[in-house]
């Protein structure tokens, strides 16, 4: 049996991560085992290491971090028929919710749930594919779950225009770049926000109008842009963004709801509701099959969906992950940090 190695968080707030052996776990029903070729780094990874039980009280130590993987299928669980040995795949590693080390990303081999994995075409590199899973899952949960925005599912051939508009605040983030593409593929017009340097990139992804979130008049400017349009609500990405999104949806016609990737404010404008996005709700909702099973493979193949934001490789081993997390703390914009394994 092959040997496995992982970058372990040995205790709450322990630094650095320790690279040492991990169990090689065979997949069960509805699972595949992937040999990782690239993993991406996310803010939640350094938050788990830095904040420990302040934010993730349910995590058991020692544990392995990481949510984004891309690699090759080396084992399939009983009854799995939608993946084969040798398939090139990306997937969402779910150890944060399961407390099962085998399901974490920062190791040589990761167990993935088949409904949270997608095949990827040969033209897409592992390092580019690795930027997708957590970001697209978060965006999909906020956009499509019935108790969030409940939008129409995306299609790789792009749905006909619905005549409705969504606000995606934080468009240059990992979640934002994926959300823009999903919403456009679902037939919605997209308004977004970013620094001016990223406007052209977001418009290339499909946003029709992009606004400078630093502007003192950004709420007024976006509200004016909605005149004559019907809103389907907003997706707020980033700290303290649900507030301005709530102000906007309160002023314009349409749905008065904000799906928020961060905790929304306690007080909202009258008639407006908001909900923090919980990825644990995605796993058996039907949304995961629509996005991971259908849209991503077809979209990557025909080019209607592209890995975003661009990847930046900052290391070539599990030992490089800790330095990568330190780099991530400094902040990134319109890029995602990746480790090649």
Gap between N and C termini: 19 Å
The DSSP helix count reads 10
N-to-C SSE string, H for helix and E for strand: EEEHEEEHEEHHEHEHEHEHEEHEHE
| CATH superfamily caption of the largest domain | Medium-chain alcohol dehydrogenases, catalytic domain
How are the elements arranged and paired?
Blueprint: E1 4-9, E2 18-22, E3 31-40, H1 43-51, E4 63-64, E5 68-76, E6 88-92, H2 95-98, E7 109-113, E8 117-119, H3 126-129, H4 133-144, E9 164-169, H5 174-185, E10 189-194, H6 199-205, E11 209-212, H7 218-225, E12 230-236, H8 242-251, E13 257-260, E14 273-276, H9 287-302, E15 311-315, H10 321-329, E16 336-340
Parallel strand pairs: 9-10, 9-12, 10-11, 12-13, 13-14, 15-16
Antiparallel strand pairs: 1-2, 1-4, 3-5, 3-7, 3-16, 5-6, 6-8
Protein name: LAMI_0A00232g1_1
GO molecular function, one term: oxidoreductase activity, acting on NAD(P)H
Domain Enoyl reductase (ER): 14-339
Structure description:
Residues 14-339 form the Enoyl reductase (ER) domain. This is LAMI_0A00232g1_1. GO terms for molecular function: oxidoreductase activity, acting on NAD(P)H. It holds the Pfam family ADH_N. The chain folds into two domains: 4-131 and 310-340, Quinone Oxidoreductase, Chain A, domain 1 (Alpha-Beta Complex), CATH 3.90.180; 137-280, NAD(P)-binding Rossmann-like Domain (Rossmann fold), CATH 3.40.50. Helix 6 (199-205) links the parallel strand 10 (189-194) and strand 11. The strands form three sheets. Strands 3, 5, 6, 7, 8, 15 and 16 form a seven-stranded mixed sheet that branches. Strands 11-10-9-12-13-14 form a six-stranded parallel sheet, with helices on both faces. By secondary structure, it is α/β, with parallel strands linked by helices. The longest helix is centred in the last third of the chain and has 16 residues, at 287-302. It starts with a strand and ends with a strand. The chain contains ten helices and 16 strands.
